[in-house]
Amino acid sequence: MAFLSLFIMNIANADTTTSKRLVVYFPNWGTYNSAHKSITVGMIPWSKVTAVNHAFFEVDSSYKLASTDTYADYDKWFDHSEGWDTGDLRGHFGEYKYYKTQYPDVKIIVSVGGWTRGENFHAMALTAANRAIFIQSVVDFLKQYTFIDGIDLDWEYPGVNRAADPNDQYDKGCPGGPEDTANYTALLKELRAGLNNNGFSSKLITVAAPAGCDKLELQQPDIYAQYVDWLNVMTYDFHGAWETTTNNATPLYVNPNDPSATSPTDIKNKYNVDYAMRNLRDNYHISSDKLNVGTPFYSRGWKNVTGGTNGMFASASGAPVGSWDNAASPGGQYPYSELKTMENASGYVKYRDQYAMTPWLYNSSLGVTLSYEDETSLSTKCDYINSNSFGGLVVWEISGDDANYTLTNLAYNKLIAGSGTATVATPVFNLSSRVYTNAQSITISCVTSG
Q1: Which among 86, 173, 355, 406 is least buried, having the fewest CB atoms inside 10 angstroms?
Q2: What pLDDT sits at residue 19?
Q3: Coil vs helix vs strand at 141
Q4: What percent of the chain has pLDDT over 70?
Q5: Torsion over CA of 78, 81, 87 and 93, rounded to 10 degrees?
Q6: Rg of the Cα trace of the chain?
Q7: How far apart are CA 372 and CA 254, in angstroms?
Q8: Is the peptide bond before 119 cis (omega within 30 degrees of 0)?
Q9: What domains appear along the chain, each with residue ranges and CATH number?
């Protein structure tokens, strides 16, 4: 019986003339939650990142920029809080002020929206007058907090009308309509002009861009890219427990055995990192150095898993309650710090899809499959970034890493400290079947003859 590896290795010159970005989201709610390490700003590995996105602010009902947690952001006592007198800065922002003096080259950016706090984007962007209110509030904010380097708009998603999740008290939904397409572009254009006209031409504007082509078609990234400094492409959550078939949550490439639909949206061939990035670069003509590839430091999971091959492309219903989940609407979200331990836990077996270049854990007794990013898949993803001259990596989110910041250090070494050539795995798609072996050095091979 002969076997042929499912992938070949191409050696490509990496773009090492300019170091890449390593952008990490910081969750302001993580300070209350042990599953998020009770994380503080001081726990960010500042020497290894190039930008910190503070998650989240929101657009309030008067269309102004506002914190989603004024206590954690401005008042909670941390190590470098200034005091209790009027005007003294505490909270996360007191910490940002201090760490900006220690790491002046690291950009500190306020991210607006996210999945649960997009309630007022549509109404704010609807008219020029409403947009002007928001833009002036951003200008006022940057005047007050001079150590903040910019603003990140994370509108999920323009043109999509999404109701609030009744099982999530924090989810306000995200109303939307067809007018969002042009209004989002106008908002970014006017925001750039508003900052420039107030002496803030050096302040950054970034956006969280969808990876799904169906959502991207409701935007005009080819137009608005000129107004932003970079796009953080959300190349994760391609699959999850909202589907009844297990799959890879952040596949680098398409797996030809993926059973996903090809119409009306070609999920099978277009819901992967490579297609999403090439789509923005080649079809929307955005410079590759403006595009950051996204990576999740958490899993997506399924329960009641049956059939498939070792828990992959299997039937499933629902998800296990991960430590990052709302128990009423779970998604199998475990941080990498826990997944790393689960890799050696009784009942869990680790497999790797060498088409998609990502791992998964399967527990046949529990009927649970968890798809995630590990050191091997992230290393391959960083090589992909280098070989394609993309701008860098964006992480959701930093508290998911382990205590040693293994993934963050790996990305730093690959994208910023490293040099030389990148070894990029290129999948071969004309093979027929797979045999899985279970070991720490996991391989997936293909029978080519008997």
Answers
A1: 86
A2: 83
A3: helix
A4: 89
A5: -60
A6: 22
A7: 16
A8: no
A9: 17-300+372-420 (3.20.20.80)
